[in-house]
Design a protein that fits this description.
536 residues, alpha+beta, five-stranded antiparallel sheet, 21 strands, elongated, cytoplasm, RNA binding, Eukaryotic translation initiation factor 2D, eIF2D_N, translation initiation factor activity
Length: 536
């Protein structure tokens, strides 16, 4: 029930009348507790809070907290003690004993299976189906879990100790235990069963593999947690574990620096994939993955404060001859070994609903994509077919009703009767909805956002031109000595915009025009650059 964190609804101090009712309920539910014990758990004057909460599955739970430790919890009008209470009064409930390795399963939400129960010499405790019972580990009477019996003791023995024995509600190391002071269980030896338990542990060393599986059939044999090592390991096992630890440490020290770095790189790679990268971010540039995800997973040295320039390895190292310069632009694939090639931009136009009548004869419908040459050819054929060339001056075109509706504004209907060929195509291209092939879908934007008292320059749509935004940010950062940030474009999964501090439009324009050779007509915002002030 408490394997995952629960949600607290309210936390209030308990009233006197509610305390008296709780004492009566506790006395009735747990006859093994004396009146003084109940008064110590539910005092009249000390701070006692009642916490209303919801478990991760939505079950309503009431917690009774004394001195910041939960002492009881109530589910469906049934009261159960917590491990903090059972550590003070271990004989409150009938207890079943299991192996320490099973505790991990219980804390994770698993129930206690009967093959994992250790049967002492005096036999199992007598319980009925639904009775509240505790779970202990061998050689320690301090309970580590609380639950309800799924069947009576006689039925357990009749089934040959197979099946589910106890339905676990609360265990040591779960979220209810973490709601308290997180103290560990005390060591409470069992005087009558200690010898028997030791014989079982030493004489039947292979029993835990068969007797301690969780509900999923696991057969874990590791120790459950550091806090319970004194409950599950004897001195010889502890020394053996230390020897193995020293051997493992020695093998790590014997590894070469290259092997250690490979292990660290693989660890960072897996860590980044597991906790940093989202499916929505794919495809992801390897350079972006390394810089934004893997480096953040590498803990250790974060900055270089000094360099031993006279070190023999550094002095003897010769850089490769074919190295890309620091500010040389690279293509958007992240491959820094190949030089950047400017994109080939082909302007295309989409037939809009307004212009569709002009292209019906050529079987071009709304949404058709045409090159400028195709547009010129189709319109020329349309003019000749409808005999719109002026008889007196062939440089002019007579405007018919179709051209009037498609190209002219309403204010020009009565004024314009003829158009030159050049004016016809210019007006046609302005009316067309522009469409360009990859890498351009919409214009590259250089916009200066004024947010007093600071200014920033934003650059977006770099990916459409095959430009790596990270490389662009690095180049700008080195050139203008200002901070740069990569931010995701709202509404886009695989595009980012480069933000650089200050009005850097002139420097951005210089890089795009000179280094990346992007045509000026595809760059918007160059007019927003800082203009040189007049000298007085």
């Amino acid at each position: 029930m408490f394997a995952k964190p629960f949600r607290v609804k309210s936390n209030t101090v308990m009233k006197g009348s509610d305390r008296r009712k709780l004492r009566a309920d506790v006395s009735a539910a747990f006859p093994a507790l004396s009146g003084d014990d109940v008064s110590a758990l539910v005092p009249s004057k000390e701070e006692l809070n009642v916490v209303k909460a919801y478990a991760h599955r939505g079950d309503a739970v009431t917690l009774y907290v004394l001195h910041k430790n939960p002492v009881f919890f109530e589910v469906e009008k049934h009261i159960y003690p917590t491990v903090y209470t059972l550590w003070r009064y271990p004989d409150t409930l009938p207890a079943f004993t299991t192996w320490p390795t099973v505790l991990q399963k219980l804390a994770g939400g698993a129930d206690l299976m009967l093959p994992g129960v250790v049967v002492p010499s005096q036999g199992l405790p007598e319980v009925k189906q639904g009775d509240c019972c505790a779970i202990t580990v061998v050689r320690n009477r301090a309970p580590v879990a609380v639950g309800t019996a799924t069947m009576s003791t006689g039925e357990m023995q009749g089934l040959g100790m197979k099946g589910r024995g106890v339905s676990i509600l609360h265990a040591y190391m779960d979220s209810l235990w973490a709601f308290g002071d997180k103290s560990g269980p005390p060591s409470i030896p069992a005087p009558h069963s200690e010898d028997c338990a030791e014989e079982e542990c030493s004489g039947e060393g292979d029993v835990p593999e068969e007797a301690a599986p969780g509900p999923d059939g696991d057969s874990t044999t590791d120790t459950c947690c550091p806090d319970l090592q004194e409950l599950s390991l004897n001195q010889g096992e502890t020394e053996q574990g230390e020897e193995h630890g020293n051997e493992d440490g020695g093998t790590e020290e014997e590894k070469s620096p290259q092997e250690q770095m490979d292990i660290l790189l693989l660890q960072c790679f897996l860590h980044a994939l597991k906790s940093k990268v989202k499916k929505s971010e794919l495809p992801l540039l390897t350079s972006t993955f390394l810089r934004n995800h893997m480096f953040s997973c590498c803990k250790g040295v974060e900055s270089i404060v000094d360099v031993a320039w006279k070190h023999p390895e550094l002095r003897s190292f010769c850089p490769p001859e074919e190295s890309v310069s620091e500010e040389a632009p690279v293509d958007g694939s992240g491959d820094h070994d190949r030089p950047y090639h400017p994109p080939e931009i082909t302007p295309l136009y989409v037939v809009s609903a307004r212009l569709e009548p002009l292209f019906q004869d050529s079987q071009k419908r709304k949404g058709a994509v045409l090159s400028p040459e195709e547009v010129r050819t189709i319109i020329t054929e349309y003019v000749k077919k409808n005999e719109l060339v002026d008889e007196h001056n062939k440089n002019f075109i007579n405007i018919n009703p179709a051209l009037c509706d498609c190209l002219l504004e309403k204010s020009e209907y009565q004024e314009v009767e003829k158009l030159k060929w050049d004016d016809l195509f210019t007006s046609l291209h302005q009316t067309h909805r522009p469409w360009r092939t990859l890498p351009l879908e919409r214009p590259l934007t250089d916009a200066v956002a004024t947010s007093l008292p600071t200014q920033v320059t934003l650059i977006k749509n770099l990916e459409l031109y095959g430009i790596d935004p990270a490389a662009m940010a690095t180049t700008l950062q080195h050139r203008v000595q200002a901070s740069t940030v990569l931010n995701p474009v709202p509404g886009s999964k695989d595009r980012v915009l480069v933000q650089i501090q200050g009005n850097q439009v002139q420097q951005v324009g210089s890089i795009l025009l000179d280094q990346y050779q992007i045509p000026r007509k595809y760059i918007q915002g160059l007019e927003k650059g800082q203009k040189p002030g007049k000298k007085k």
